[in-house]
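Need tokens for this chain, all 346 residues.
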Amino acid sequence: MKAPSIRLGDLSVGFIDSLAAAVRSHGQDPLPLLEQYGLDPARLAEAGARLSIPRYMRLGHAAIQLTGDPALGLRMGQFGRLGQAGLAGVTAAQAPNVREAARTLIRFEPLYGSNYRGQSRFDEDADGAWLRFYSISPYNAYNRFVVDSILAGWLTQLSILAGCTVLARRLEIEFEAPDYAADYSHLSDTPVIFGAAGNQLRLDQHSLALRNPDHCPSTWRHLLQLCEKELEQRTRTRSLRERITQLLGPLLNGGREPDLEEVAARLKLPTWTLRRKLADEGTGFRDLLNDTRRDLAMTYIRDTELAFGEIAYLLGFASAEAFQRAFKRWSGQTPGEFRRGQRQMG
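Here are the structure tokens for all 346 residues:
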């Protein structure tokens, strides 16, 4: 049975620039490795080109093996530049201050990267703001570098904008302390918290207020308008089915599943209206939930190294056994048989 085309997410090939620079900083040539993954100079120069998250994770893992540097993600962050985030990054580079640059990078994240299971957030309060990055867990050698590169990259990008070093007042990492934990010390002026509830960094009001000497108000406003138009265009054409599927990914969680009422509230629709609209499209909420779980399960098995128990947890199954039974019902195969078959085909 062929795996569905659902994607765990993707990101701009602009992020490959910092990976290549990090590899070169170790005295290695990144070009042969990039070409193995179909990332030749022509592909990297394509307007709007994207790379799937699973492929990016495999590429990063291969780069870590090539350089022998498990902290390669942190080094990648040091080579981060706003332009690598495409139109959103160029717009952020024209922001009046660090606050608006950070807000812009996160608000327009869908223009340069998408994660089916969640997205980044900028949460401000009276004392400062949290920049929160969502990553697919559980963590292993294939995805820790993604968290490292994003959080370190944010600080590098904002420091370049302000013309001075911007440090996190607090840095929290979702995975447990790795062997290279000491390498995070240059990112924060307080000890890093590992095994936290999420991946996030804290900026105080002083850092947020740092001004951008290259800010041009008219250019800034024009670029913001372009970002808003592109973001609206990306979301305008989604059907109700697509909108619900997009919501279900982040809502699925360990041992629980979302219900119709929860999704209706997210869509700002009465429950009965949502049920009727789905019936008009010839489907129902339970059908969409099962389809989403099936497609995600097949994608996780095909495109990641996650154990089946971990996949069961991510998809909200009460147990690994319940997941195994559901997968056999969906595909006629056990998860192990499906993974072996996909690897042989690939």
